[in-house]
Write a structure and sequence with these properties.
With about 240 residues, this protein is α/β, with parallel strands linked by helices. The protein has one domain: 3-Layer(aba) Sandwich (Rossmann fold), CATH 3.40.50.150. About 20% of the residues lie in helices and about 25% in strands. It is built from 5 helices and 7 strands; from the N terminus they run αβαβαβββαββα. The protein has a 7-stranded mixed β-sheet with strand order 5-3-4-2-1-6-7.
């Protein structure tokens, strides 16, 4: 019928997305950065994916006729307030970076070029992929099944010294946990490489001894950085 309402996956998704979207509780976009300089900066930016659905066959009419099955609804902005690239660039990370500083930044495949652009905006030069996380489980992907995330290394000035451990492995194979939860092997590895340097975690959700931190969701109490083995025993 001509007046029959057209149903699409997005007509189902959008109302639910608006209801579940996380909002920044602050009047300003960011909390105030510390008035200190750091040799090591570790960041997990809240990348914005435009509120798009993850690719899944439940959103295809021919695969899910009449949308009798629930449409797969998942997005980063349901879990935490995401930030667009142009706004991430305004964060004055350069103001807390020592003259000789290394930046470790989490990213995903779709955000790879944005990550390099962001590192440059913050005053750093892209150097390499420091860590590759094999999550041991895949997400639906439009090209290949998505199973990895990355930590890029950027440098400002010279490499911070003295250097600690030199045997920290690039590849980390740890089963994915909660959404956006990162394996502790990475911060453990960075700590071993730079045990004496001043370190800060940006967009942090933990409060580890030996590290300053900054973000919206930081616990009050300091804790030791657990090993992945210790975490596995607790689960």
């Amino acid at each position: 019928m001509a007046d029959e309402k057209i149903v699409s996956a997005y007509s189902i998704y959008n109302p639910e997305a608006k209801r579940r979207n996380k909002i920044n509780p602050l009047d300003e976009l960011y909390p105030v950065l510390p008035d200190k300089k750091y040799d090591v900066i570790y960041a997990d930016p809240p990348w914005d994916y435009g509120g798009k659905m993850q690719y899944d066959k439940s959103s295809i009419k021919t695969e899910n006729v009449g949308f009798e099955k629930n449409v797969f609804i998942s997005a980063a902005n349901f879990k935490y307030p995401t930030v667009k690239l142009k706004d991430l660039k305004t964060l004055d990370v350069g103001s807390i970076a020592a003259d000789d500083c290394i930046l470790f930044m989490w990213t995903t495949g779709p955000q790879m070029s944005n990550s390099i652009e962001l590192g440059k905006a913050w005053g750093f030069e892209y150097k390499t992929i420091a860590f590759v996380w094999d999550k041991q489980v895949h997400n639906p992907g439009r090209y290949t099944l998505s199973q990895t995330e990355f930590v890029l290394a950027f440098k400002k000035g010279k490499f911070p010294s003295p250097r600690g451990a030199r045997n920290v492995r690039q590849l980390i194979s740890v089963h994915r946990g909660k959404h956006s939860e990162k394996p502790v092997d990475v911060i453990n590895g960075i700590t071993k490489m730079f045990p004496t340097q001043k370190k800060i975690e940006l967009f942090a959700r933990n409060n580890y001894y030996g590290w300053d931190n900054w973000g919206l969701e930081i616990p009050d109490a300091k804790i030791e950085i657990p090993t992945q083995g210790e975490l596995s025993k607790q689960q």
